[in-house]
Amino acid sequence: MTLYTALFYLLGALIVASTGVAVTRRNLVHAVVYLILSFFGTSLLFYLLGAPLLAALWVIIYAGAIMVLFLFIIMMTRADAQAGPLFPPGQWIPAAVLGLLYLVVGSLMVLAVPETGAELRPAVAAPRNFALHLFETHWLSVEIVSVLLLVALMGALYLGRRRETDVSGEEP
Amino acid sequence: MIMWFAGLILLIVKLAVVLGFLLFLAAYLVWVERKFLARLQIRYGPNRAGRYGLLQPIADTVKMLTKEDTIPDGADKGLFCLAPAVVAMTAMLMFAVVPFGPELSVFGRKVPLVITDLNIGLLFVFALSSLGVYGVALGGWASNSKYSLLGGIRGAAQMISYELALGLSLVPIVMLARSFSVVDIVQAQERYPFILVQPVAFVIFMISAMAESKRIPFDLPEAENELVAGFHTEYSGIRFGLFFLGEYVHMQVLGALVAVLFLGGWRGPFLPPPVWLFIKIILVVLFMIWTRGTLPRLRYDQLMTLGWKMLIPLALLNIVVTGAVVLF
């Protein structure tokens, strides 16, 4: 077992543990903090696997921007912890089915590639190589995602605008 | 193996020197700020502890360390203790990618004068600066006080708004240097500093940097007349000291970033490279203190209008223009 393998399992354990703690918290702010820890672990995992650009972007976008918005909304609304069971059956049964499906499909996909047994080696992909690979082989996916984001942006704009006219319409 | 140990010892020495310097300078920046502000306001400033008040930072440090450390009853203990550490830690870690001199060669070994030359150096800085928001937001929330909470919310909103302008203003720099690495960016300024070709980016970066470090005229998260002291109202002793330290280290880091990205970093005639970097950092910091002494605080809507309706579109325009110039 090399140092890289040991680090890989350590980070994996950190991610699984912090995500597990995050979904079982009743205090929403605590849940957000554990989720940030989990994202941080994921980012380190990307770095370990030789994708520093992805690692940095992961922290900037997920841990830095999206979770701040979550935290912001939780702090603004001051949502109190809800009584009752943490996971009602209506929520956990579909989640468990989807999770199991993902586990099976994911494992099959990993096992189908010949590189599965290869040893983890230190590697670094420079931002330039990463970008070239992304835009040469996966340009279609990038375009699809960007169209999706554009639609989301337009939706947000529409919702924001409609509310503005409503408020002004109510005033005498 | 011996080379490996030599590298490790070298790294530890570099870390110790840089960290010691950062902390020492942070303490004396407080003195500089108080003295300079006092002069701007036609008064003396600290002048009791030592000659010209030069021992004031030491007296302040001793006071912070020995003061009672209080945690409010209703506070969330864990997060309350974590928040100041996040602020101070993220500010200090950012300095890791700032080069303070060209590569030296000692005993035939190449010694780069930077703690670590990441090929994503700039993004590393942004990642840490986006994590720094949590210190402010969680500190405000965990104190369980309305003033702290309002300060924390304002801080989070302000920092995520200005982070966009901060990041976008640096895209042209990356385009010109063709690298995210801070060392390469300094190398690319061999003939002329980037401030000459990117004055717009420089102005946007300076304004957003001041907003990021929550200083007047952008100090809404701690606006004294409305929020007592904002997100750190409930903190005392060394925990408050850590917030304070974080702010002053942040000022130095932003000064260093301005120096490295726009003013040519350690380049300069006659004096040794680290001295030039130091001079440039001090000049930027003095400019920030001067601004504090000159401008009043912005209103909240003015702050958001400036960030979203002026700086971000201007930064985007600057990217398009620079892209066109680089391409043709």
What's the structural blueprint in terms of helices and strands?
The complex is a heterodimer of chains A (172) and B (328).
Chain A: H1 3-23, H2 28-48, H3 52-77, H4 89-112, H5 127-137, H6 139-170
Helix pairs in contact in A: 1-2, 2-3
Chain B: H1 2-40, H2 56-66, H3 77-93, E1 104-106, E2 109-111, H4 121-142, H5 146-177, H6 182-188, H7 199-212, H8 224-227, H9 237-262, H10 273-294, H11 300-327
Antiparallel strand pairs in B: 1-2
Helix pairs in contact in B: 1-2, 1-9, 1-10, 2-9, 3-4, 3-9, 4-5, 5-6, 5-7, 5-11, 7-9, 7-11, 9-10
What is the overall silhouette of chain B? globular
What is the typical, i.e. mean, pLDDT of chain B? 83
Which fold does the CATH topology of the domain at 1-81 in chain A refer to?
Four Helix Bundle (Hemerythrin (Met), subunit A)
| Overall strand count of chain A | 0
Largest sheet of chain A: none
Structural class of chain A: mainly alpha
Biggest chain contact: A-B, 24 and 26 residues
In terms of DSSP E residues, the strand content of chain A is under 5%
